[in-house]
Amino acid sequence: MIKLEHVDKYYGSFHVLKDISFEVGKGEFLSIVGRSGSGKSTLLNIIGGMDKAESGKVIVDNEDISSYSDDKLTLYRRRKVGFIFQFFNLLPNITVFENISMPLILNNIMDEEKVKNFIKLVGLEGKEKSFPFQLSGGEQQRVAIARALIHSPEIILADEPTGSLDSETGAMIMELICGLMRNLGKTIIIVTHESYIAQYAGRIITIKDGIIYK
Ligand SMILES: Nc1ncnc2c1ncn2[C@@H]1O[C@H](COP(=O)(O)OP(=O)(O)OP(=O)(O)O)[C@@H](O)[C@H]1O
Ligand SMILES: [Mg+2]
Predict the structure, then answer these.
(1) Is residue 14, in this structure, part of any structural domain at all?
(2) How far apart are the CA of 28 and the centre of ligand 2, in A?
(3) Is the overall model pTM greater than 0.90, yes or no?
(4) Is 159 a member of any domain?
(5) Are the C-beta atoms of 38 and 208 separated by less than 8 Å?
(6) Residue 122 belongs to a domain with what CATH number?
(7) Is residue 84 part of a domain?
(8) Confidence bin at 195 (pLDDT 50/70/90)
(9) What is the domain range of residue 171?
(10) Is residue 42 a part of any domain in this protein?
(11) What's the angle, vertex CA 101, arms to CA 82 and CA 125, rounded to 5?
(12) For the chain, what percent of residues have pLDDT higher than 90?
């Protein structure tokens, strides 16, 4: 499903990712752990088409996305990938319902029933008309999870999805993510520095100073 071959990334003269190669199978749940500054977010952003590597290949479904034009990369992000972030990244001026609808609208496949179903699935019934600031952190992350999944992307990328939640809420969010993934058969990569979060994954790889240890 996802294959990285000798990926190198620099910020100026700083070599942030060093000759990274690994594969993630379809339907696999992989966790990437490593200390702050080790390159986890950079790596996830390259897989998600939000950032580009200087060299190496990023092959997704037999296509090398590192050779994509910006327009093609935008379509890749929009259709194939669902993102979950530490600070939720919801649009502040629109409702829960509208936030979750966004990927469907962007892909021209708006379906109100589907949005309602996902609101139910993540346990947010009754909150449809709320704005993000009216929700708790855990509720905001539920919105983000529904938004990440609604357009049926094949890949889910989560960068510290529990990083701004207390451990109890974080565990509930992980249970929700795992339950949904099991049912939907998605490929998921979670970046975290907390080992108890990584334990939810089927496989864990470690990154240290831009080098992968499998
Ligand atoms: N846009 C940028 N320009 C310059 N340096 C950057 C940029 N983004 C990240 N870096 C540097 O690259 C290194 C890796 O950053 P990255 O965000 O990937 O780390 P991380 O493992 O996700 O850390 P954290 O756990 O704190 O989120 C850091 O030293 C960071 O300062
Ligand atoms: Mg990070």
Answers:
(1) no
(2) 21
(3) yes
(4) yes
(5) yes
(6) 3.40.50.300
(7) yes
(8) confident
(9) 25-52+69-213
(10) yes
(11) 100
(12) 93
